[in-house]
Amino acid sequence: MAEIIDLGTPFLRLERDRHLAYCTIDRPKSRNALSSGMYFGIKKAVDWLNRLPDPCALIITGVGDVFAPGGELRGKVEDYNPKMDFLTHSDVLPFEEIRHSAMPVVAAVNGICQGGGLLIAMLSDVAVVSERATFRAPELLRGIADTGYAAYLPPHIGVANARDLLLSARTIDAQEALRMGLIARVVPHEKLLEVARGVAEQILLTAPEARMHVKRLINERYGKPDRMSMDWSIYRGPEAREGMAAFAEKRSPSWIPEGLRSGKRL
């Protein structure tokens, strides 16, 4: 029988079955948009994983046709926790926790993967991706200077590809993501979890301490995010306020040239 672990939000399910654990993002009414509590819950899941006395791998996935589209921008948060008010933006986010996890973390990307969801997939040990998945880094469309992407993407996929994805904020499919090295494996949708389990178990066959040292060297290739600039952009920047308001109101941000305005959400 699977062990169920509470992550402090009803929109994440963490279940352990022997040497595998599953963290499922389950907020379909909001298209799996990640609240602060959900981001922090994923961080807690990785911390829980690394405190286990026995080897275990974590598989992160979503429900329906969405893996994770990034953070909740509409202000609709049903899992508000006042304790979160005392944490900074950087304290809440799980990306560094995933990146530095000694225990294996595998992303099983079942569908739309954007924003913070894409960072979760990128920084997992391996991202196994459904053929139906799509990817986008839309932060600049929201007025957010995401210095995490600016640090991680160039060494991950090369400077030219990073510029293309970040500055155009365009959507790409699974095959293009595979071609540019954004993710590692594309599989038939119906075999996604089966393959993700297999990948997690393959990693568990390797020696834990030796694996940790190898992963540390790989991680050193990433740049260091400028958290001060990013936090200022999100909490105080006028462009981020306008970008998030435009998203919530389903309109184009005011900085778009008049000739390019569609009047629709970007």
What does this structure look like?
It is a single chain. The protein is globular, with a radius of gyration of 18 Å. The longest helix is centred in the first third of the chain and has 15 residues, at 36-50. The protein has 266 residues and is of the alpha/beta class. The protein has helices spanning 36-50, 89-92, 95-99, 115-123, 147-157, 159-168, 174-179, 192-204, 208-219, 227-235, 238-248, and strands at 3-5, 12-17, 20-25, 57-62, 66-68, 105-109, 112-114, 126-130, 134-136, 172-173, 185-187. It has one domain (3-189, 209-219): 2-enoyl-CoA Hydratase, Chain A, domain 1. Helices cover 39% and strands 17% of the residues. The strands form 2 sheets. The chain has a 7-stranded mixed beta sheet with strand order 1-2-3-4-6-8-11, sandwiched between helices.
Layout of helices and strands:
Blueprint: E1 3-5, E2 12-17, E3 20-25, H1 36-50, E4 57-62, E5 66-68, H2 89-92, H3 95-99, E6 105-109, E7 112-114, H4 115-123, E8 126-130, E9 134-136, H5 147-157, H6 159-168, E10 172-173, H7 174-179, E11 185-187, H8 192-204, H9 208-219, H10 227-235, H11 238-248
Parallel strand pairs: 3-4, 4-6, 5-7, 6-8, 7-9, 8-11
Antiparallel strand pairs: 1-2, 2-3, 9-10
Helix pairs in contact: 5-6
